[in-house]
Structures are given as C-alpha cells and as structure tokens.
Amino acid sequence: MSLASNTTVASVHPDAVLDALDPEQREVALALTGPVCVLAGAGTGKTRAITHRIAYGVRSGAYKPTSVLAVTFTARAAGEMRTRLRELGVVGVQARTFHAAALRQLGYFWPRVVGGAPPQILEHKASAVAEAARRIGVSVDRVAVRDLSSEVEWAKVSLVVAEDYVKAALADDRPAPSGYDHQTVARLLTAYEDVKTERGVIDFEDVLLMLADMLSSHPQVAEEVRSQYRHFVVDEYQDVSPLQQFLLDQWLGGRRELCVVGDPSQTIYSFTGATPHYLLDFTRTYPDAQVIRLVRDYRSTPQVVHLANEVLRRGRVAGALELRAQRPAGPPVSFTVYDDDEAEAAGIAARAGRLVADGVRPSEIAVLYRTNAQSEAFEAALADAGISYQVRGGERFFQRKDVRDAVVLLRGAARSADGDQPMPELVRDVLTSAGWSERPPAARGAARERWEAMNALVGLADDLARAGTDEQPATLATLVAELEERAAAQHAPTVEGVTLASLHAAKGLEWDAVFLAGMSEGLMPISLAETDQAVAEERRLLYVGVTRARVHLEVSYARSRNPGGRASRKRTRFLDGLWPDEPRGRTAGPGTRRRGQARQQLTGEADVELFDALREWRLSVARETDKPAYTILGDATLAEIAEVRPSSIAQLARINGIGPAKIDRYGATILALVADAGSP
User: Fold this and answer.
1) Does residue 422 sit in helix, strand or coil?
2) pLDDT computed for residue 2 by the predictor
3) CA dihedral 545, 571, 521, 540 (to 10 degrees)
C-alpha cells in the first residue's frame, strides 16, 4: 500500500536547516525521537520549529518523508505546513487535517473491508437533525436546529452515545441547548443516527470514528497504516477532542514516535468538545517525554506582549507561558470608551482610515469582536468611510462563483497562452473579461466584493511573477497550478481590505493593527459564560485576541448600545487594573477622577495637554451658556481632536461629533487651541 508517493530530498547538509532557528526552536528540531511535547506561546514560531524538525529528520536520514504524518486542525494550517516543507526542500510528507487524513485512509480501505464505495458524507447536519426532531415529536425552528446540531457534534466528538448523554452532560455542567431537556436531546441523538442510516450517509465525525474502529478491529489494516506512518506530529494539541485522541491512539498502536505542539492558554473551543487535558497531562501519559518551551515572541511589540501576559497572570491560567518580546518597542496599547455602539464603529473606522493613510495596508488591519452579530455596525461604518473590508467566516474565497469562473477562464487561457507576453499582463487581460478593472468600482456591496476577489488574483499573479527566475519564469500554468493547490487547502490569496472577524475566527491569524471592539461585560466575558470554566475560557479568548496584533492594538467598548441610551455598560473585568483609569502618581480627588475617566478616551497618539486645554475651554463655555458640558462637545470628540490636531476647518469637519453648526460656533477657537498647543 502507498498512502503517499515516494520522493527524493535535495542534497543539502542537514545542519543548514538549523541555521535560522533560535536555541529553543533548535532544540525542537533536534528532538527527533518521541515522545516530545512542545509548549509554544503565541507568536513564538511553532510552525517554523516543527517544520524544521521534520525537514532535519528527513535530511539527516532519520525519517523517510512518506513515513511522517503531521496533522492539524485547519486546511489553511496544513497547507502552510506543506508550503514551508517544500521551501525547505522536503516533499512527500503528509500534512493534513485530522478529517482529511482519516477520509483518505477510510476511502482506501473501505472497498476491501466493507465492500463497494464509502457512504456519501453529510455536508450539513441541519436537515437530518430537523428530521430527527420531527420523528420524536419536537418542534424546532432554524435556531434550534443549529443549536441541536452543535450538541450532536459535541456528543460525537466527546465519544458520548445517546444512552450516556444525560449523565455526561450533567457531569460536564453542560446546559441543554435551546431550552430542551437533556432527555429530549438523548432521544434526538438516537433518531439522528437512524435518519443517517436510512439515508445511507455518514457525517464528518463518523469518518474519524469508523476509521478508528477499522484500525482497532482489523489488525491487517492497522499494520498497513502503521508500517506506512512511523512518525506523528500533532499541531494545536490543546484543541484535540476525545474522538481525535482515540484515532491518534489507533494510528500510534502503542508506539512512542509522537511530537505534540500546543498552548493551553489558547484553548478556546471547549464548547465543541476540545480539551487541553491531553496536552496538560502529556507527561503523565509519557513520564519520560522531552518538554520544550517556546516563549520568545517574534510577532508582537513589548507593549502588546505585556498586556497579553498580564491578562493571563491576573486570571491564573493553568499552564500559562510568560512570553518574552523580541521586537523593538512600539506604540502604547490604546484604550478608548465610546458613548454608544455607533460611535465605536465610526471611531474605529476613522482610526483605521488614518492607519491606511500612514501606510498600513488595509489587509494588515483587523476589527475583532465576540459575536458575529457585531459585524454589521463595523461593515456600515467602514463602507461609509470608503474603506474596503472582508468579513471572515462568510463564503469561502474559492467557493465564490465569480472566483470559480475566473479560474476556469485562466485555465483555458493557459492552454493557448502567448509565451512572449508577461504572465501578469495575460492575467489582467483575462480577468478584464470577468469584471476586473484597474480602478475599483464606486459601488459598494457585491460589486466591490467581486472586484476585490478579482484583484486578489491579480495580486497573486504579480507575487508569482516576482518569485520567478530568468531560467524558470512564472507562467499562466504556474498560476493555475498554484490556485488549484490553494483551493484544495482553502488558502485564499490576500484580499486588500480590513478584516472583520469574531475572536474565534481570528485564531491562527495576525495583523499589524488590531482593534478589539466591544470589550464590555456581557460580551467579554459573554453573558452565556455562567460557570468558572466558561469564564476562564473567555479570558483565554481575550488573550488570543490581544496576541493577534503585531504593532498597533486598540481596545474599546461603548457605554450604551444605542445613541442617547442609558450608559449602563461596564468594561470587561479581565482588564481590571490594566485599563488606565487615572493618571499615575496623583491623588485622585473628584476633579482628578473626572479627568482620569475622560482620559480613557485617549489613544497613545493623543496630545494629553491639548486634551486638557480643550476640556477647560469646554467647561468655560458651559458655564457661560449655562449648559451641560457634554452638550457642547463630547469627550470622544475632544480626544479625537487631541489626536488628529487639525489645522484647518476641512480637517476639523472630518472629526466625528462636529457638525456645521458647531464648526461655525466653535471652529476658530478650537483651531486656535490646537495651534497654541503646537507652539514652542
């Protein structure tokens, strides 16, 4: 049997692989025999360490490439691992998700063990769950079907059968979904399996379960797989479920050639059945395991790393690693309070626009939030500001019809391409017929999204052309092959727009600038987090959000949901003692407290003295007119003036909270205050 094709490795001295590694990463690369546990903090180069370990093992002769199986949790991560190994001159290593590896093996052995073709896979559980609910006499709507589908998935990845569900859910302190009782869910689990059997389909969890069962009950199959794969690497091991661990145990068959990599502080998927238990107890399972800690953070500035460490330290997170920043100092983390959600979205859009004006690419900016429902306000604000954006978690890039059509056109053009015309020009000619143009359309919405997708293909063509050589230039066929490989790995090219994403969807990604929005109680931690374990996971989720930022990090929340609403929200408890409430080194009398609270609006780029001067001016106007100070200009508006420091009426008019009437009344005075603040 051959589950992977044989290959040869470039004849480069093995030690050359180690040159680019720091001492701890080098230790990982040299740990060629298992068991090995790599505890890797955010931004510490874990992918570099484990891919170099595999490459060193292959080049030194310790591993055959086809004997290595590296598994991770997303197709994107698996694709990145394969790309890095290829760049290191190593091909033939199997780097796949758990499901992709299991599906490949199940498809190979099914005809021999069971006979015929494997069952069709149920892409979505909703229809089967809805039918199961109908059979047991339960009324469900769309939301209930979604929640029940998630519960079915949790039970299956947790290896909980219907007969044991009630006991297991109670032991896990797991509330029944959508208001149903546990007994009803147990009955639904049985009915769901019946529906699948009658339809002749299996779900994604069945793929892992059936392969694991096949390996445990058919020694010849197990021997064939185990003789093929002798060395295992598991990335993101803190997110392994009992089902995945069960399959991994069958692959290993009692052997010890296992290297696991993970970070208990980034466990954020417990609700899906993931557990850090296997990572935290690895040395109990393997008392002689080599444990290596990666704590040098190459991603984030010291300011970001400090906040990340403090979020964990104050929560006493089990197994937390204290990161050590390796980058030069950057701007301070900024903390801003807005009056309402609309003001927060507008403020963040304005800040993003200024970052772009300062040279930060839109694709290197992200707005992260706790729930998907929060994205709408940011979509509207960015659209109003004329800033391109993409919502992560929506339709996948290669599943878009316009992208599929464009790839078909490129594939056809590759067959008859003019060899004398540069590849990027050919691509532009082809995509012009698919709706691309040199300039983006003025229209928003679908038309703009279509152009952004086409432009991402143009950008990828340019990147490949630059990477080509005179001896081996990139061709249209090269681009098509790259697109096909990326489509298989769901590794989309970069779309040049600000990323909007939930904190969960941001896992594994990073940007130059990150806005953590909606950081108030009820959203962070979310109100549904009612147990200590759930709250602890919310803290880890915040840590993941903080560590996505390389340079710029801005944290904010809004006091009320709607403009003019009651200011009842409080900032997240996770930032108690970290949010700069008051100036340091002063006695906080009433006036100082009010000034300290107002300064919560300030970012690290604001002129504090100008802000105080603006507040003093506003107070004098309030006294003269016998009006509340906030009706003249709000603190958020004064903070933005202190940050932007406008020098003209036109610049002042672009600041949120200043309309034509207030410019007429106060514009000249404000500009004079700004000018005075800038004088020596």
Assistant:
1) coil
2) 38
3) 30
Residue 345 confidence (pLDDT): 93
Smallest CA-to-CA distance from 270 within 549, 528, 574, 43 is with: 528
- Between the two ends of the chain, the Cα-to-Cα distance in Å is 79
Q: Which of 489, 453, 467 is nearest to 423 (CA)?
A: 467
The per-residue pLDDT for 537 is 92
Residues in the chain: 680
Is the confidence at residue 603, as pLDDT, over 70?
A: no
551: helix, strand or coil: strand
Closest CA to 259 of 26, 526, 35, 452: 35
CA-to-CA separations, 407 to 256, 429, 478, 481, in angstroms, rounded: 44, 13, 12, 10
Annotated binding site for ATP, which residues? 40-47
The token pair that represents 415 in the structure block: 């067959």
pLDDT tens-digit series, residues 180-224: 889 999 999 999 999 999 999 999 999 999 999 999 999 999 999
How far is 35 from 255, CA to CA, in rounded Å? 9
SS (H, E, C) 576-588: CCCCCCCCCCCCC
258: Cα separation from own chain's centroid: 26
pLDDT at 86: 87
pLDDT of residue 65: 92
Helix, strand, coil fractions of the chain, as percent rounded to 5: 55, 10, 35
Residue keyed to tokens 């152009």: 451
Count helices and strands in the chain by DSSP H and E runs: 26, 16
Q: In the numeric block, which tokens belong to residue 656?
A: 């949120």
Q: In the prediction, which pLDDT does 9 show?
A: 41
Nearest to 560 by CA among 607, 522, 599: 522
pLDDT at 246 over 70: yes
Structural domains in the chain?
Answer: 30-109+208-290 (3.40.50.300), 123-202 (1.10.10), 334-396+496-575 (3.40.50.300), 397-489 (no CATH), 608-677 (1.10.150.80)
Residue 71: CB partners within 8 Å, gap ≥ 6? 78, 95, 96, 97, 98, 101, 232, 233, 234, 235, 248
Convert the pLDDT of each residue in 528-555 to its tens digit.
787 888 899 999 999 999 999 999 999 9
The angle formed by the CA atoms of residues 361, 365 and 370, to the nearest 5 degrees, is: 165
Cα angle value 418/421/422 (rounded, 5°): 125
pLDDT at 598: 52
51: nearest Cα among 187, 242, 233? 233
Please count the other Cβ atoms lying within 10 Å of the Cβ belonging to residue 578.
17
Exposure b/e, 164-198, CB count within 10 A at least 16 = b: ebbebbeeeebebbbebebebbbbbbebbbebbee
- Give the confidence band of 364 by pLDDT, cuts at 50, 70, 90: very high
* DSSP letters for 208-230: HHHHHHHHHH-HHHHHHHHHH--
DSSP 489-500: HT-PPPPSSEEE
Confidence of residue 435 (pLDDT cuts 50, 70, 90): confident
pTM over 0.85: no
pLDDT of 604 reads: 53
pLDDT in tens, 638-670: 888 888 888 888 888 778 777 777 888 888 899
Residue 73 confidence (pLDDT) above 70: yes
For residue 345, report the phi and psi dihedrals to the nearest 5 degrees: -60, -45
At residue 294, what are phi and psi to the nearest 5 degrees?
-105, 115
Q: Which helix (H) or strand (E) holds 272?
A: none
What residues are designated binding site? 40-47
Tokens of 299: 């991603």
